[in-house]
Design brief:
The chain is an alpha/beta fold. It contains 13 helices and 11 strands. α2 packs across α9, α9 packs across α10 and α10 runs parallel beside α12. The site of pyridoxal-5'-phosphate has 13 residues, from α3.
Length: 392
């Protein structure tokens, strides 16, 4: 019940145990094409270029940034948690001229603040996180999309923590590129990074296309400044997933099975229903921790549905309490990073764990751990408050 990775959906684990096939086997290429269509539904986009980058979520981030940013390009990063700092770090490694604006952890940006910064910096790209797992905050994106379009700025977003459990509208919000991972609301393991790229971002990437020497054909004239990474070269990866099937890496077949199954389950459930499931169980967990008498961190109006940050009661050893939850009840909750380390626990309700019994058992176990730590609590208050949410 941490902030991810979480208990994988058993159906995803089963899909991963299927036998491997070669990467140009017709069933494999059919799976790839099907997976592209499934992730278009998940991201809510018509972008043809919607596929998987092999690697954990940051592989998707690195692929997007290294393929779009050329050295010296101005990039604006609004930071409201740890993963905004990660975007800065990756953009700097791409040798961008990085500009930042920053909100205190636990808050999100007003569009006017972002608009002022866009006007002042005039960046090629704005890169932001949607849901920052470190603070649990979810940045509204629709206005930022409009601001980017009005100012001709490419709009990249890291949706790793939010996708599938919170409304996400790639096309309607005017995003150019979004990336994610499987290990949060998608209910899978880490190791595959779904990505979707708008036609105008595809043009920016393809303007730098330099096909690898050993597979180059007569039409592959090198142009633009070569993308600094081979593995994350989206121009080549698009040719690999596209009709041309131009060889690149050896596709991580088992992760493809996992990613396909995650999206298949989400689409079968219905994206809106999956978001509503996360909202409901997140609301029950929020009410439950408050019902125990605990204090929730941050601007709750902008909290992601799928994770809550709870202040560790004064005088309680937060790590010892987490260890007791794990050892006595088999339930893992999360610690936190940076300024919140030692201050809050993060409790997730996502993917396969966005279920009533998971919420109620966690609250019941947490009550026992708090009681053992002599924290004054409302007996039965956690499960009771969550049940009221379920009854409403
Ligand atoms: C919002 C966000 N972005 C990026 C990452 C990095 O993901 P990974 O560890 O899969 O590379 C995480 C991981 O928790 C995350 O929550």
């Amino acid at each position: 019940m941490g902030p991810g990775p979480i208990t994988a959906d058993p159906r995803v684990l089963r899909a991963m145990s299927a036998q491997l096939v070669g990467q140009f086997d017709p069933s494999m290429t059919a799976y790839m094409t099907e997976t592209m269509a499934l992730y278009r539904a998940v991201f809510r986009t018509t972008n043809q270029q919607t596929f998987l980058v092999d690697g954990t979520s940051r592989a998707g981030i690195e692929a997007a940034l290294v393929s779009l940013i050329e050295p010296g390009d101005r990039v604006l990063v609004p930071i409201f948690g740890r993963f905004g700092h990660l975007l800065v770090e990756i953009a700097e490694r791409c040798r961008a001229e990085v500009h930042t604006i920053e909100m205190p952890w636990g808050e999100v940006f007003e569009p006017e603040t972002v608009e002022r910064a866009v006007r002042a910096v005039s960046p090629k790209m704005l890169a932001t996180v949607h849901g920052d797992t470190s603070t649990t905050m979810c940045q509204p994106l629709a206005d930022i999309g409009r601001i980017c379009r009005d100012n001709d700025v490419l709009f990249y977003c890291d949706a790793t923590a939010s996708l599938g459990g919170n409304t996400f509208e790639l096309d309607a919000w005017g995003l150019d590129v979004a990336t994610a991972g499987l290990q949060k609301c998608l209910g899978g393991p880490s190791g595959s990074a779904p990505i979707s790229i708008s036609p105008r971002a595809v043009d920016v990437i393809n303007a730098r296309k330099n096909v690898e020497a050993g597979i180059r054909e007569h039409q592959d004239v090198a142009h633009g400044s070569r993308i600094a990474s081979n593995y994350f070269d989206l121009a080549m990866i698009m040719d690999y997933w596209g009709d041309r099937r131009l060889n690149h890496h050896t596709e991580a077949t088992t992760m493809l099975y996992a990613a396909r199954e995650c999206a298949r389950l989400l689409v079968a459930e219905g994206i809106d229903r999956a978001v509503e499931r996360h909202r409901r169980h997140g609301a029950a967990m929020l009410a439950g921790v408050r019902g125990l008498g605990l204090t929730v961190f941050g601007d709750v109006a902008h909290k992601m549905h799928n994770v809550v940050a709870v202040e560790i009661p004064t005088g309680l050893d937060g790590d010892a309490a987490r260890a007791a939850l794990l050892n006595d009840f088999g339930i893992e909750i999360g610690t936190s990073f940076g300024p919140l380390h030692g201050r809050v626990w993060r409790i997730g309700t996502m993917g396969h764990n966005a279920r009533k019994e998971a919420v109620l058992l966690t609250l019941a176990a947490l009550e026992q751990v708090l009681r053992a730590g002599n924290v004054p609590i409302t007996a039965g208050g956690g499960v009771g408050a969550a049940q009221e949410v379920y009854a409403s």
